[in-house]
Amino acid sequence: MIRTTLAALCAAVFAPVATAAAADAISPARVERAVAASWRDLPADMQARVDQDETMRLCSQYRNAPPPKVAKAIVAREKKNVAYPADGKFLGDWKKGQASALSGFGGRMGDDPKRANGGNCYACHQLAPTEISYGTLGPSLLGYGKLKGTSEAAQKEVYERIYNGQGTMACSTMPRFGHNGFLTIEQIKDAVAFLLDPDSPVNK
Amino acid sequence: MRTTATMALAVALSIGGGLLDCGGARAQSSPGDDADKTLEKYRAMISDPMSNPGYLAVDAGEALWSMPRGTKNVSLETCDLGEGPGKLDGAYAKMPRYFADTGKVMDAESRILWCMETIQGFDTAAIRKKPFASSGGNPATEIESLVAFVANRSNGHVYAAKMEHPKEREMVALGEALFFRRASVNDFSCQTCHGQEGQRIRLQKLPHFDTPKDAQATMASWPTYRVSQASLRTMQHRLWDCYWQMRMPDVGYTSEVTIALTAYLTKKAEGGKIEVPSIKR
Question: CA B207, CA B195: separation in Å to the nearest integer?
Fold first, then answer.
């Protein structure tokens, strides 16, 4: 039951409108041949960005609306991919979390790899009421901490969600920040604090 | 006049936070609306060919097209863009398309380069290595100028890329699959940002290509003069830019991926009336 509801929700949220206008069939191997021809002679770290892992492959194939069985397998696999803070603490510094939420820096060709990547949460989410430059690709997280509370369980849940959202929802739009090594464990703790800390502007 | 108008637009844009989309017909109530209106006003002001700096590239492209050049010292006036040698009017509106002489589906950029190689005897390696002008008011590169000129000669024409040849159909299907292909350190695909109607990233409105008016307004307005980069930009550059945002390595210039995506998006834009170069954020 829960599974069906979740799948229906996934389909409703993510199903592209026009898949019904069926295009000619194209094989995954053909797609990968085109990709290989279009990004050539890359160093290993860059080739790794072009290549897909199993989850990306399945989410692409099912256009982010995998059938329930596939979705379940993705969630199970991604759930295992979460690394936890060594000190067992989930709440970092909300001020640092805020700075990261505002920053779209990092990972783009030409970006200085020595500078910290930004979480860029505002690209997709509304957060603090004072920041009007927010995107709408994700749900509003305005007052999120007031809703969730600051219990250990809430902290852990939010940490896991940011570390690897696909451990909760298969083919989530949200980047798997921790899993992909895009944000560090410390940065994810800061993001949790930005969302949950009662002093954070998100909860004002 | 040209300079003043451009500067006024730049000012309008920086007031708006430089985060706006000027993609046109996408009305939506958002904090960006006031700035959108300001931008609309300045766009109207500079929409005439005398003040859109993109037209400098059109003029340069026209000169490059008709000038005898290359090792064979001939012009591009016999180049066949699909409508017959030297036939330019409306040709861009039917591209990308299949060309029997190469056995490939080609977009305007790859076809012009092919003409430069075969007709004029150019070695295009250097052009392919640096196809885009650096941002910040530098003149358009040769190939950008030529595309601007060729595209401009389809103004008033409606996108009518038929995509009926089996190779064209294959490219459209390939483009569609690529649109959903997630990769790199943020797990993005094109669909992440362009998958739903009326979405924004920060304050920038995002075109949704399954919405015909979005697809038409978008595709029929490239090449465009991008004020934020002070440069004329082509669709090849836009795709490179979106892959850059996706944290992908630089996608190959005129690579199969870029042509397949262009074919897919152009098919979606059928019926859009071409007015280029436009002017955008």
Answer: 9
